[in-house]
Design a protein that fits this description.
about 30% strand, single chain, 3 helices, 3-stranded antiparallel sheet, alpha+beta, elongated, mini-chromosome maintenance (MCM) complex, domain 2, binds zinc ion
């Protein structure tokens, strides 16, 4: 009986080792994706800030319609198309953000004042806080 116990233990050890190895592989591939798999060209990001905190970010070269829901239930729809960004829909009263139209650079952001929302393009090559210093 003791013999099988010992065998069980080594089996468990092997299983643990395999699981650890798998986990390490998974982690390595995640890191690989973060550093090398991310959009290569330019790397500009569309960043969505709510009262100063980053809510979401999307690659500028990835066309798509991205709904963003705020904590208070307000919904904004941000459209990325042909290297430009616009507020497609917003449930604010003044619709200034929707009327801003398409932005194509970080020169000025789309701002939705009633909801404290800012959508801006950030170039991937320079870190935002490097400019602030
Ligand atoms: Zn608005």
């Amino acid at each position: 009986m003791r013999k099988t116990d010992a065998k069980d233990k080594t089996d468990k050890k092997r299983a643990l080792l395999a699981a650890g190895l798998l986990a390490a592989l998974f982690l390595a591939s995640c890191i690989w994706i973060i550093f090398f798999g991310a959009p290569a060209s330019g790397g500009a990001l569309v960043c969505v800030y709510h009262e100063g905190t980053l809510l979401a970010s999307y690659p500028l070269e990835e066309d798509g319609i991205n709904p963003v829901e705020l904590e208070d239930g307000a919904v904004k729809v941000i459209e990325i198309k042909d290297g430009g960004v616009r507020m497609l829909e917003a449930d604010c009263d003044n619709q200034v953000c929707v009327q801003t139209g398409i932005i194509r650079s970080g020169a000025y952001p789309i701002v939705c004042l009633p909801h404290g929302l800012v959508v801006q393009i950030e170039e991937g090559d320079r870190a935002p806080d490097a400019m602030a210093r």
